[in-house]
Amino acid sequence: MKFPSINPIVRIAIGLVGLVTSCVLFATFLGLLPDQFNEAVKQRESTCESVAISFSLMANRVDQQVIEDYLKQVRDRNPDCLSMGLRSIEGEQVLEIGDHFPNWEDDLKERSTAEQIAVPIYADQDVWGYLEMRYAPVVSPGILGIFERTDVQLALFIALASFISFNLYLRFVLSQLNPSKVIPGRVRNALDTLAEGLAIIDRKQRIVLTNQTFQDSVGKSLESMIGKSIDDVGLFNQEGNDQNSDQFPWSEALQTKNSVCGKLMTIQDNAGDARHFSVSCGPILDADQSVQGVIVSFEDVTQLEQKKNQLERMLFELDQSTDEIRRQNQELELLATQDPLTGCLNRRSYFERFESHFEAANQSGISLSVFMVDIDHFKSINDNHGHAVGDEVLRQVAATLRDSTRTDDVVCRYGGEEFSVLLPATTITEAAEVAEQMRLAIEALRPEGLKLTVSSGVSATCQSPANPQDLLEQADKCLYYAKRNGRNRVVQWDQVADEIEAEKSDQPSVEDKSFESTPHIPVHAVTALISALAYRDQATANHSRRVADLCVAVAEGMLPMRSCYLLETAGLLHDVGKLGIPESILQKPSELSQDEWKVIRQHERFGRELIHTTFGNRELDNIIGDYFLPHSKRILEKREVTVEARILKIVDAFDSMTNEQPYRETLSHRDAFLELRKYAGVQFDVDLVERVINVIKLQRKSEQVEDIYLSKSVALNIGLQLEQLASAIDERDQEQIATIADRIRDSSSQNGSTPISTKAEEISDEIAEEADLYEIIRATNELMDLCRLSQRVLLEREEMDGEDPKQLHIDAI
To answer: How many other C-beta atoms are found inside a 10 Å radius of the C-beta of residue 223?
Structure first.
């Protein structure tokens, strides 16, 4: 059986009590303290002697009755006296007070004890008899009688009183002692070198020992804390602790006898700033597994907590920036589908909608109608009144078209002064009626005091077009039929189809060139390829979009609508073969080597194969093939190159010369025109060179020098990548963060956005240097601020006047 251990203070107190008690008992033994038993015997003997003397004096003069009364009074005045008796020398019982003689022990006559005293009585110098007095015992018989002794009671009192006083005194004195004074210097130095604060407390949660780190952390000296409760140091639980947030960790360790780890606590330092600690506690157990105290460690996590709070704040700001970027991306997506001047859909977005509606109409059997609208004599308006008036005319006509259509109808600025309106679930007759209403509404307009008229051509899926381009071409032929026959009218395909076909067979021309039926080119497939190219190389994708837009502007009015569509597709996809070029070559900032140029030229073959495999369209294959055909080989083989390929060659050369290339000096428009004319008749068609130059000059005069589609697409592309970047940060995927940051850097640097490029590169550098998440998020927030500002500037300029804003340069902000 194990006995519980005794507190060291109690053990010391017991030892001291034993010493004091022993001293008291020894003093009693030496007679230094009065003996209750001896004193009682002496007092009783003295009383008995006095009574015996008095009796001797009275014996001859007083009768027996008086003597008896006297003895009774003596007994009554001595409560301890139980009985009294007179016995003659012969043993005769002369007088008895109380029940005396039966209780008297005869063998004690010759000697007295504490309970029986016999005193001789003299008569004439002789012993006459004995006075016997029987007393109650001085102490009770048995063990209990021991404790009635005054010496024993004194010893017990001193023992108890000293035990209590020693205990209290020792507790007070020991609590004032500094244990560090008895700890070896090397041990104390070792504790002081610990980076963590350390405190040892006893069972009463009083501080017994601390190291220097803890003293510095709480701003108090060891002397001021020794013996004080650790609760008084000023530490308090930090919000967000576990369910026992109201209980200090050391209290929990004392109660549960279990270690407590990682509890966050806070203290206010002398400057009033909060310092945060991660507190861990371990109970100190003795051999009997009883808790004698707790060792407490304090890890200063102030900087970590500050970074955590800053990180949480930045993540919140990042979420807000992401929401703003997402909202602006939606607006940019909308703007990227719109013509900036009129607010109508642009061609490529219109083709995507058209294709979807065409497929739905074929599957459902519900008629889909389309009509083309062209402003009559629009060129004379620009020539006579200026491009500003011409732009206002376009805006008012577009607004009238949009206001006259239903929610599901689609209005597109097809080119220059030409518009196209798509009417789902509408017959050709109903579409002609809508076109007529629009014609009358436009005729009623008076922009800048001018009288306007428009011509329209209408067709529908009931006229059996093979694909969307065939349907548009039917409507376009009706439009030109209307213009040739007086203008300001609406013409339906079903009413003039035979006549148009007859004119076509009688007077063939370049404009009326017919094509054999070939597979249709899905707009969604073209969009997917150009998106893939943009993902790989944003600069090449932007170049392809610019080339396609300029090719269409050059071909309008010169080639049939179907040919324009093929040329536009060829312009978008002429560099799609670069998807197969290694990124190290594709993104090389310096001049390419001969071997690298060989790799670059391989993209021609890969591009032709990709386009042929994807679409299988012979006309598109011919355009792409003729575009890549070397001039020397064309001369040698005496091959006739398609008009579309010739236009594409000129436009591609012009855009490459006037936009920044890592391996080529950028030329001004004037110098680029000189270069085109220099090689006209050698590499380029002379007439087409002049047509391209005239179209570009016309665009510059109308203050549409820069391609807004580029600025919108760049801003939108970067915005979408920022959304991906925010998701990667949420997932703490640093590899993905670096990859997206590199894409943003490349996209922005290729388009002149130096601050965005620099900040994106900073993110990549932070990851490469294994910086913490705080620095990465900080740089990301700054990047988002730049991008959000660039998008907002673009959107605000769009809202300001609806005009085509110039290319957005981040350097300007």
So the answer is: 10
